[in-house]
Amino acid sequence: MKPRMLSFALIFVAAFGGSIAISNAAEQDEQFVPMLAYRTGPYAAGGSGFFGGFEDYLALVNIRDKGVNGVKFAWEECETGYDADRGMECYEKLKNKGPTGATVIQPLSTGITYRLIERASADRIPIISMGYGRADASDGRVFPWVFPLITNYWSQNTTKIKFIAMQEGGMDKLKGKKIANLYNESSYGRETIPILDKQAEIYGFEVKHYPVSPPGLEPLFDELAVVWLDITRRYEPDWVILRGWGEMNPNALKEAARVGFPRDRIVGVWWSGAEEDVIPAGEAAIGYIAAGFHPSGTDFPVVQDIVKHVHDGGKGNIERERVGTIYHNRGIIAGIITAEAIRTAQEKFGERPISGEEMRWGIENLNITPQRIKELGAEGLMQPIKVSCRDHEAGGAVKFQQWDGEKWQVITDWIQGDRSMVRSMVEESASAYAKVREITPRQGKSLGSDCNG
């Protein structure tokens, strides 16, 4: 894929993206999946890419496989603009559609996820916050309806510190180092502050947190210029963690280049590690490193099937040039997880449209093995996951990639997060949440426990 072609496509994403989204009226024999999407605004690149991939996979299952055991998908988009209030309105609009109501919610927004937890739980509709949302929701005994699958923010953060330590020569070499945490001032951006502070205490490095106002609230570029001057002239860190989203990312890289901070000393979150985050920055992005729980590319059989069965037939849900990009592939993984959880639930409840409550059981008993991943044509695209009552994360491994000016190059094997540290913090935070809200956690001591039902 030519970077110039992708950049050209992004110019038209707001205008064109909405028109290519499918909106299907669910019939009685269909499985309805609401799409709390955002194809407009400062986060349009991420939202359009993800939901385009998500819908492309559901369309593939409908066209190629005639549905999941004969049950086809239907979906409808509601534009949230990544705004929490609009997200709640969209949820209420879509939650009762389809023969069994909403199957599962994937809002692709930490803020909307936070707002939805109590309401969706009361409505008995599961939330999948794949790679985002509350990290402590990994404890399914307290959060039975929320699934931060594959890897949560805290696990990812421990892998970033491990990666930095690898570059420095070992975990003991972190002592005395300075790390600047440049983050989007939102619930998403603030999520990793507690674990970064804890790791700094354990390993002896210093961390300073630099908030940046979300795009649209302040003149972003001017604010980033001031922050980067403070980082480089006053703090002088050894490393910078970029926890941006949307327009913040390429602008942050441009400012890093302007003040002369090396891009190969900047490590981004996976929401700062897509083509749309680096191509607009041009040469300023070369050498930049980001975490990821999957790669980009079109060489995977599942992506090739999407091209063949969906896009070649004029049924695509995103511009053809963006197929196989990071955000699009992430949406495909979301689609795979959704379809496989439905398949799992059908084994227990029957080959028919399943309810949100049945879907929750399907997700909690989901086991996507390496063999199944190969059968799905996704070998190398996603890591195996095995969910349980106690463990709603079910993964935790991360790879790191580096931008070479044309594409992302994977530069590490899977790096497992610090499961012991993360799990301890998850349980402590979840316990506090349960106490405040007077929740009695489900029983289950081992990670493999089914909590007796």
**Main beta-sheet strand count, sense and barrel state:** 8 strands, mixed
CATH topology of the largest domain: Rossmann fold
Rg value: 21 Å
Order of helices and strands: HHEHEHHEEHEHHEHEHEHEHHHEHEEEEH
Termini Cα gap:
47 Å
What fraction of residues sit in β-strands? 5-15%
- Strand count: 14
| Average pLDDT for all residues | 91
The CATH C-level name of the largest domain is Alpha Beta
How many separate helices? 16
Give me the secondary-structure category.
Answer: alpha/beta
Count of all domains: 2
| CATH H-level homologous superfamily name of the largest domain | Response regulator
CATH architecture descriptor text of the largest domain: 3-Layer(aba) Sandwich
Short note summarizing the structure:
43% of the residues lie in helices and 14% in strands. With 453 residues, the chain is an alpha/beta fold. It has 2 domains: 271 residues, Rossmann fold (3-Layer(aba) Sandwich), CATH 3.40.50; 139 residues, Response regulator (Rossmann fold).
What does it look like?
The strands form four sheets. Strands 5, 6, 7, 8, 9, 12, 13 and 14 form an eight-stranded mixed β-sheet that branches. The model is unreliable at 1-23 (pLDDT under 50). The protein has 453 residues and is of the alpha/beta class. The chain has 16 helices and 14 strands. It folds into two domains: 3-152 and 295-397 and 419-436, Response regulator (Rossmann fold, 3-Layer(aba) Sandwich); 154-292, Rossmann fold (3-Layer(aba) Sandwich).
